[in-house]
Every structure is written in C-alpha cells, then in structure tokens.
Input
Amino acid sequence: MSAKITFSEPADISDLKSFLERAKRLDDGGVVKFKATGDVLAVYVAPIFSGSLLGGGTTILGLRTMRLRGDVQVDANFEISAILDRLAKPTVFMTAALELPPASVKVAWAGITPPRDGWVKAAGIAQPELSEVAKAGIAEVAGLLPTSIGASIAGKVRQDVWGRLIAGDMTYPAGAAFAMSGLGFLTPDEVVDVFQAPGWLRFSSQNGHVLCRFQSAS
Output
C-alpha cells in the first residue's frame, strides 16, 4: 500500500508520537487504525477489547484527530511499533510527512465503527474522579495477576476489572477512566464531557476522546 500522509502542523507529529507511545504502554502489541476522508485524520487505538465483535464484553477505543494537508483517503491498520519506528526518523519532523507501512494488518476491533451522529450530552465527570477510578483499577489488576499467567486468563481479569460499571450521575465502565488516564487525555481539574449514542458512550476532553461500547450503554 505504501503511501505518505503530510500533517498540516509539524507539532501534530510530536502529538501523534506521544499518543502512540502511551497506547503501546497500555497494549505492547497494539494496533493503530488510521482513517481519513478529506483533510482530517482519525487515529484510533484499542486499550481494551473484548476479543469478540458479537459476544459480550467491553471495548474501549481511544481517538485523536489531526489535520492533514490536502484531501487524503486512508483506511488502514498498522502495528503501533511500526509507526513509532517511522516516527523516530528525523526527516519525519523536518517534512511533517509520515510514510505508512506497505501493508495493512487485520485486527478484529477495527471493524467496530462508532456512530458519527446522534450523540447527546449525558453528563460531566470531574478529572479527579476518573483518575481515582483508574488508579484503583490498576492496583486491582496488579494484585490479581501473578508474574506468570496465561494470556487468556490475564485478558479475562482485565475485562472483569475494566468492564465493571461505576455508578453515579452517569454509569460507565471503569475502563473508560483507565483509557482517559493512560492515553494522557486528562487535564487537572477539567470536567470531561460524556456523550451518549445507542450502544455507546464518548468521553471528550480537550486532549482526545474515549469511546466505549458495552452492554449497558443503551
């Protein structure tokens, strides 16, 4: 496929690099989805994925958008590590252009498409609450997972913890707080807007968006 995308602002290259470095820490073997129609690039990652498009479980997507130069058509998935390797080249920052890997990779969560319209504001959640939920979940996961454990068991533990619903003015999965914190989307004392669409929640801060698909969101 080998293509090149050029960013409107060179600073977006640094932002993309930081975003993907954070995403890789949350999922070392993670994949990033690039989707662009026109001059806006949507960059998706999936810190939490149930592993099934049809079954239950919670899927959490992180989203950042960036402006490109010119109209671009891209809809492809790449290993995060492959994109970070390319972002490590000095020429990328000099030209604000990123050469994409030659081939897209397959990943099940990329077939999940959040709605573009129909979002209604449902609540606002203060940053300290989300940070505390994230910290508590991280500590619980660490306490439940021994140093050596099978991947399937580890995945179930994470689904159980991050899929747990947090009750309050707005019911949401704990994984939303984990993703907002881990992807660097939280700013001290900010109130994060929460929007609802059929089957989905969207947490929107000044730094990015987290989209949640879980059974109780409708």
The CA atoms of residues 14 and 152 lie 34 Å apart. Helices lie at 11-26, 80-87, 90-95, 127-144, 151-162, 174-182. The chain has a mean pLDDT of 89.
